[in-house]
Specification:
38% of the residues lie in helices and 20% in strands. The protein is globular and about 55 Å long. Helix 3 links the parallel strand 5 and strand 6. By secondary structure, the chain is an alpha/beta fold. The relative contact order is 0.11. It binds iron/sulfur cluster. Iron/sulfur cluster binds next to loops.
């Protein structure tokens, strides 16, 4: 297995827009979590035919991603214990830095001590949940950091030896917040992160945000604002040397997320932890989502897998198309019908896509319409 994801479900509070599978805890049950993940790993090696601990498929691990939830809430010694055990089981590349090891972190968890301990444990990439540099906005989101903590965290990480730092920002917030997106982009660029991930606010059911909207306390995100801020980000980031290599992700040269790129190119990956997904190129399976259910199953020696879905050839084809068009690699023309399907020709004419090196690649305007465009290509009777 070349790509491994570890889901750490704990958060200290729930952000106003978040519907992820998390466990809100004041005290993080780190020993129980480490024990459960290691049990899952042992079970995989002993129950999954064709897999043996120490040689998971005979491939060399290339990326390891600790996502959540908030992985930075785990004490550094628990992170170190996990990484040591995982790297004992999975054969890692010989050079430490050839293995990309990402930790998602909240800015308030970054201290000189934690940053140095993460580095010693083998983490070499940190993805910081910055979201905004406006304290009013951060409070509205129920984030637990303030704006000054973001810059402090970046400087502390650099001092500890991290040069691969990513910042997450959220755009398309409700109008009444009067969020200054241009200012947030300027402040983010001024910190010179290697990578930026930009996500438009979406309203998920059963979140505080959905409740605020349903009772009229806040306005729903608006498409015009979404498009305006998305395109503005492309222009602003390009002027600071960033390149969008995926619909929501931009980086400086040499700093693409190798782990996420593996997802987007349809490669196999293994997920451990509650709610983690795995994909073997044919079937997708996912773990029990609730932390306590996951922990109890493993404590009883049972599998953590909740369900599995085998993708049909048609589903795989659609997924390949969608994933390819999300990235700047685009879709090889050879994989599309010849001559160019009328739908694709129409995108090019409208400048929603371009032909580059015999590939169909979305422009920023095309990425804004990605779902509709994929529908257009797979259902030629329909026009966008
Ligand atoms: S920190 Fe992340 S995972 Fe946790 S509640 Fe906020 S958005 Fe959700």
């Amino acid at each position: 297995m070349k790509h491994l994801y570890l889901h750490v479900p704990f958060c200290q509070r729930r952000c106003s827009y978040c519907d992820f599978s998390i466990a809100v805890r004041k005290h993080i049950p780190a020993p129980e979590y480490v024990d459960a993940v290691l049990r899952e790993l042992t079970l995989l090696g002993t129950t999954d035919p064709g897999r043996e601990p120490g040689d998971l498929g005979g491939e060399t691990l290339e990326t390891l991603y600790l996502g959540g939830g908030t992985p930075s809430l785990l004490p550094p010694d628990a992170i170190s214990a996990l990484l040591t055990s995982l790297l004992d089981v999975f054969r890692a590349t010989s050079s430490r830095d050839a293995l990309e090891v990402t930790l998602e972190a909240n800015p308030e968890d970054v201290t000189p001590e934690s940053a140095q301990a993460w580095r010693r444990a083998g983490i070499n990439r940190v993805s910081l949940g910055a979201q905004s540099f406006d304290n009013r906005v951060l409070q509205w989101m129920h984030r637990s950091h303030d704006a000054t903590r973001i810059g402090d965290a970046v400087r502390t990480l650099r001092a500890a030896g991290f040069d691969n730092i990513s910042l997450d920002l959220i755009f398309a917030l409700p109008t009444e917040l009067e969020r200054d997106w241009a200012r947030d982009l300027d402040l983010a660029c001024a910190l010179l992160p290697a990578h930026l991930s930009l996500y438009g606010l979406t309203v998920e059911e059963r979140t505080p945000l959905a409740r605020w909207i349903s009772r009229g306390a806040t306005s729903a995100p608006n498409d015009e604002r979404y498009a305006d801020e998305y395109l503005r980000a492309h222009t602003r980031l390009a002027s600071s040397g960033y390149h969008f290599y995926e619909v929501s992700n931009a980086c400086r040269d040499g700093f693409r997320s190798r782990h996420n790129s593996a997802y987007w190119s349809g490669r196999a990956y293994l997920g451990l932890g509650p709610a983690a997904h795995s994909f073997d190129g044919r079937a997708r399976r996912w773990n029990l989502a609730a932390w306590e259910t996951y922990r109890r199953a493993l404590a009883a020696g049972l599998s953590a897998v909740d369900a599995e879905e085998v993708l049909s050839e048609e589903q795989r084809e659609l997924e390949r198309l969608y994933l390819a068009l999300r990235t700047d690699a685009g879709m090889p023309l050879a994989a599309l019908c010849r001559p160019l399907p009328p739908a694709a020709a129409r995108w090019v004419e409208r400048r929603w896509a371009e032909i580059r090196d015999q590939r169909l690649v979305c422009t920023p305007e095309g990425w804004l319409r990605l779902d509709a465009l994929v529908g257009d290509l797979t259902n030629p009777g329909r026009a966008v």
